[in-house]
Structures are given as structure tokens and as C-alpha cells.
Amino acid sequence: MKTILKGVLLLFLLAFSLQSCEDQDDVAAPADLQVNDFIWKGLNQYYLWQADVPNLADERFNNNQELLNSFLRGYSQPEDLFQALLNKPISKFPKGQAIDRFSWIVSDYTVLEQELQGTTKNNGVDFRLSYKPNSTTDLVGYVRYIIPNSDASGKQIKRGDLFTAINGTQLTVSNYQSLLAADSYTLNMADFNGTSFESNGKTVSLVKTTLDENPIFINKVITSGSHKIGYLMYNGFYANYDAQLNAAFAELKSQGITDLVLDLRYNGGGSIQTATRLASMITGQFTDKIFAKEKWNAKINAAFEIDNPEYLNNRFVDKVDGAAISSLNLSKVYILTTTGTASASELVINGLVPYISVVQIGETTVGKNVGSVTLYDSPTFGKAKRNLNHKYAMQPLVLKIVNAADFGEYTDGLKPTYEQLERITNLGVLGDTSEPLLSVAISQITGATGKKAQLDKGIVLKNFTDTKAMDGIRNQMYVKDAPEGLLRSLK
Hints:
Blueprint: H1 2-19, H2 22-26, H3 34-46, H4 65-72, H5 78-84, E1 104-106, H6 109-115, E2 119-122, E3 125-131, E4 139-146, E5 162-166, E6 169-170, H7 176-181, E7 184-192, E8 197-207, E9 209-212, E10 216-224, E11 227-234, H8 242-254, E12 259-263, E13 270-271, H9 272-282, E14 290-295, H10 298-307, E15 313-315, E16 319-320, E17 323-324, E18 332-337, H11 344-352, E19 357-362, E20 370-372, E21 375-376, E22 393-395, E23 397-403, E24 418-419, H12 436-446, H13 452-455, E25 463-466, H14 467-470, E26 477-478, H15 484-490
Parallel strand pairs: 11-12, 12-18, 13-26, 18-19, 19-24
Antiparallel strand pairs: 1-22, 2-9, 3-4, 3-25, 4-5, 5-6, 5-7, 7-8, 10-11, 14-15, 14-23, 16-17, 20-23, 21-22
């Protein structure tokens, strides 16, 4: 009887959703409106805040394709329509009032797919841009790390190096994008004299190539007294490196580590599945328990709740693509963060909190508790049967994520247990025990906490942006595919 009732309720829900798109789907959009039509229908179906955008309402065009077409003709550029249909996007509300800070659209889905797997057109310099002291316009950049096997890896440039200009032009909030977008450019290097930044006459010429970045940047064991401390610097949740990530944990496990420092300071996020796997590698004693729960928009969520509620749960696992996970079974983990730590990185922290002790060291994180999915112009918005007339794809926010205790309210960022700011005059060498953030973690592990004062010397600059926020990865947390089976039913 319960099964019959469940089926009736599902049919009722699907029939209701059908009314919003049936007539529109029966009439193909004109060729010049195909991209705009895809944008509206994809956002109407999946956008997290669909109910809050009047122009995305199911009844907005009375199920009439011609009325929809008339509306779509008001936007000559797909990007303009996309921005107009978002819920207070940051492009229109840049001074703190924005609700949607992370949805985006691309004209070539091939580039998008590559970026989400860590493949970008890149010269290998990962950097942060900050405001110069007492300026609201002029910027200074500092190198955070150099990607191996990149153009920059063979040049005279390293972590901590400063630059203020590109091709002789001072970097500002209005020109940085155009200057840094070029496939090749020359950095004008600078020194800090204690009060200001001055050109030192040095230059570094860089060329972008197609580059695959292995997110496992450092994996080592540090022995300090009776402690064998595993240190893993992990810079992106790229699913195609999950096997290598598991191998890195296997290496730490084989060396019998007693503690783990997970460095996510420059990790802008990525795959929710990979975040779940990483959390499972850190632990191992919680297999099949809920790591995180997804909350989609009302109509998608309701269909899931009736037809497949388990789809909304991300559970701790014991395998990676069929291979056993090399789990450490830890009850405490130390995680390093900065203002560049976002999305899936924050998910790992928040998802572990109900289960083990998480000691966060560094700076407050970005505050991204929402996830996206790639939508294509196809009957199911998935990869199959894509419209071959264009290559547009969207990466809209489609879900909010919470931990097993239902906590997910951290849009202002996750605050560190122990604050330790990165200072351009005292960045240190990544992986070295004297590097400030790692030094604090080791001190907390070993109990030798008397050195923090000397780590706090040096200037702190106001953050503006960084490489990962600029190059298209954009602090992502995403699910692998749109739920095509559900969508077929809704259609």
C-alpha cells in the first residue's frame, strides 16, 4: 500500500512539474534563440534560487513558447541573459549584497570540463593579488607556489617573489584581468622596503601552455619527538587524481604516521565526491555514515525525497573506483586554511566536525556552502545528445550542502581555531617546519607553543583575488552530473 501511495504522489509531482515545460518543449526555439532557450530552461529546472527569481517562475510565460521567445529576444548576448536570471549575482551586487557569488557560464564546454579536472592554459605561477598599502586601486602580486613542469618552473621565479606591473603597466583593479589574460606577458618584479613596493628592475617573461596540475603538491613525513607527522599539501579536488590521492595516503600509512596536517590553504575546491573520499581516507571508521547532505531547489528536492532520497546523501566510503581506501583512522586532523580555501575544502572541514576533532589553523575561509553542476544544451541537460550548433554550458549553483548535524551556515567563512596570517615578508618555504602555518600546526601537535610571536612579524595586505578565483575554476564545489534519470521523468 505504501509503495502504491508513493507512486501516486510521485506521479502527481511529476505531472505538476510537467505543466511548466510541456508546451514550451513541444515547440523548438528558433535557431538564433537556441542558447538563450537553453539558459532559461536549464535555470528554470535546476537553479538553486529558481523560486526567488520572478522571470524563472514556472508560470512566468503561461507555458507559451512564443511568449518565452519574446522575452529571450531582449538579450542579444547569452551571458547577459544568464546574469539577469541569477539571484543578486556578484556582477551586479559587488559590494557585499550579492547572494549568488559563484554561478557562471562559458561559451566552450571543453574548456570548462578541463578546468574542473585541473587542466588549464597556465604559465605555472600561482599568485595572490592584494591591495597596496593605503590604496584602493593599485595592486601587488605575490607568488604562492610554482606548478611543476610549467613554463615558470624553468624561470627565475619562486614563492614569495613580488610583482607590481605587467609589461611595464601598474596592476590595478580595473586592468588586472586584461593584463593577465594574455597568453604571454612579462612580470615586473618588486621589493618591499618596509613601507612601500619599489621596482627592482628584474623581469620574468612567461608563456601559457596547456597544463595539467597534479593537486598533490607535497606529501611527506615530519618526525618531531615521538610524533610522526604526515604533511599533505593538496591544491584541488580533481576527480581524475583520486587514485593518486589514495596512493599518497597509502604512503603516509605505510610510514606509520601518528598525526596529519592537511594543507588546503590554496585549495579552491572541486568535486564533492573527491571531498567525500578524502574525508574517508582521513578517517575510515565511519564507512556508510552520512558525510554531507545536499539540498536542491524545491521541485528537484521534492522529487528526490519521494523517488530517491538517498541521492541527497554523501556517505563515507571504503573504496575508490573499486580499490580499497588507504584510511588512517584518525580521531583528530590539523587543517591549514587561508582566504583562498573554498568550497570542497570547506566541505571536508565541516563534514568531519561531527565525527572527529578538526583543528583549523590559518585564516578564515571563503564561505562557499553551495554547489554547482555542469548543464549542457541537451534534452536532459547532460552530455548525451548535446546541441551541436554551439558549445555553451552553464555551471549554476544547484544545491546547498550541510553536514550530518545539519549545519551549513558558513557563508562568512569557517574561522580558524588558531589564527595565523600569511605575511608577504615571512611566507617561508612550503613543507618546511619553520613555515609559519605548518610551524603552528607542529607546535599544537607536540605541545611546543612558544614561538608564535616571531611568526607574526611582517606586513599583512588586504586580499583582492587569486589565481584560482580568476582562471575559471572559481572556487567550485560540484556534483559530477545532472540527475538525468529524474529529469527524464520530469519531462
